[in-house]
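The passage that follows is intended for readers who have already worked through the single-chain material. We present the inputs for a multi-component assembly, then the predicted structure in tokenized form, and finally a short commentary. You are encouraged to pause after the input and sketch how you expect the pieces to fit together before reading on.
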Amino acid sequence: MRCIGIDWGSSSRRAYALDEHGRLLAQRADHAGVLNKAATASPRDFGAELADFIGDWLQQGPRHIWLSGMVGSRTGWHEAPYLTLPCALGTLGAQALTLAWPAGLQWTATPPTVRLLPGLCQRPPQGTADVMRGEETQLLGAWHLHQAQHASEGGGVFLMPGTHSKWVRLCPVMGRVLSFRTFMTGELYELLSRQGALGGVIQGASIDIDDEIALRAFDEGLRWAGEDSGLAALFRVRAQGLLSAAPAAQARVEAAARLSGLLIGGEMACVASDEGQGLLRAIGEPGLCVWYARAASHFGLQLQIVNPVDCYLAALQALENLAP
Amino acid sequence: MRCIGIDWGSSSRRAYALDEHGRLLAQRADHAGVLNKAATASPRDFGAELADFIGDWLQQGPRHIWLSGMVGSRTGWHEAPYLTLPCALGTLGAQALTLAWPAGLQWTATPPTVRLLPGLCQRPPQGTADVMRGEETQLLGAWHLHQAQHASEGGGVFLMPGTHSKWVRLCPVMGRVLSFRTFMTGELYELLSRQGALGGVIQGASIDIDDEIALRAFDEGLRWAGEDSGLAALFRVRAQGLLSAAPAAQARVEAAARLSGLLIGGEMACVASDEGQGLLRAIGEPGLCVWYARAASHFGLQLQIVNPVDCYLAALQALENLAP
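Having made your guess, compare it with the prediction:
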């Protein structure tokens, strides 16, 4: 085994093991995220949590364990710095922190080096204040992957939808991150659809990309996002629901889809003018990316969906100096 | 006693008793709002709740009890209709529903008439879908009051800040409500400052209009609202907090004030272009209105603060055909 990579975020963690050629040997995931306190004892013992998670893999003698994501935040295992933009992704590995091998863990004669990857930040006056942790590693992989496949096409705009959706502008030369912006789309959807005035009309309804009713309502939300600032339009989701003559179950689905369209459309409306006609690449969960693709098309943008696991594996290959 | 008016909202209720000349005899308030389920038994007995609240006043023989607000919603005592815009406020009283006198309550030989006031709604294609319950009664009072004081000046734009902030355009002739829009400003502030990514940096900090640090950060939030759609700027509150070198307690206050400035500024940015140089009147809690006044001034608008109790009492006078 060459290395192990763990994408250790707020709500979950995903581990991948690569062989000497950079090929995937094994993968696993669980919900022991950094903010998922219920899953663990207090105070946290991240070394023990690591052993619980991938202890069996350690017996195969990996050289490195790469950690990225919220595990490097103030509330994580150890605080890793934020590298300030503009920042070449090729330097991420060299700027990782080496963590002390957890006391009491001895699985091999030579324990692997535990390397904690830094995050990125954008500071005024170069840009608006913004931070990321974890996405930079996916981006390193996306750049590595696309550069290898298409020579000069490793740059452009990358969208990483999720709890905190990131839009990142990347220069193909050296994989320099030029700027990025974060939208709290996923978090807002979760907060607003479960409580308060909109929670009252949505009542936990979920939406399905194959449901014509949801699609029509999603498109309506996209139109609202184009007409109005998102904050101004949120209450329309409730008002339209209260004034609707639709059966209750349908009204709930419509409200959920309008909220989703409004929030995702809000991202698109903000970036559509900046990003022009260029190709966007979305790195994310396919079930979420299809909604973004629909929204992109509504705003005249073209969106290509990239598999996030492929990106993460390519990042590990890049960190290990292996060709993709 | 001429009448009793109860502004019975989601989280609280406020009662006022007027004499034959429209003068205030007594007032009281509690937290038994329509959505405050903890306060009451299930299923709700609104008649009994009314008796608990103002039973002693009934012995003074009021002719009418006027109810407004969420008590007239689907989850309230009885569902009152929404009157569709444009709607003359002078017709509100005539369109109130008369509720049956609650069984088992006999406080006077002639029980008062219980009158449930309608809400207002705006329906596409005349405008974006929107609804209000309770604010229409305050507006009736504001119109009545200003018309009496300044003849033709009863119209213009009224702002009613709160959980769901309303901006209402009123024609002075007949007090016709021409259009309105709702911003979920207060609700968003509550949701976002107590949980999730922004709750993590705000940690329950409160802000004070006399605190220079809070004012500077509030103004920064206003600038963000002017630069960016509100949804795009929310995460800046977190990022700026994480990147700040300020002491922890100060960073929390700054984050709270930036979020407040961003949300209130978001309202102002949306309406500033529509409302031009006209005078705005804000009907609301003075401690909240001062922040709106600061935001209005930032966006080149002039805001006059109107006392909400004066408006409500003027509404009762109007409903009883008494001169203010």
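Commentary: The longest helix of chain A spans residues 248-275. Chain A touches chain B through 43 residues (CB under 8 Å). How closely did your sketch match?
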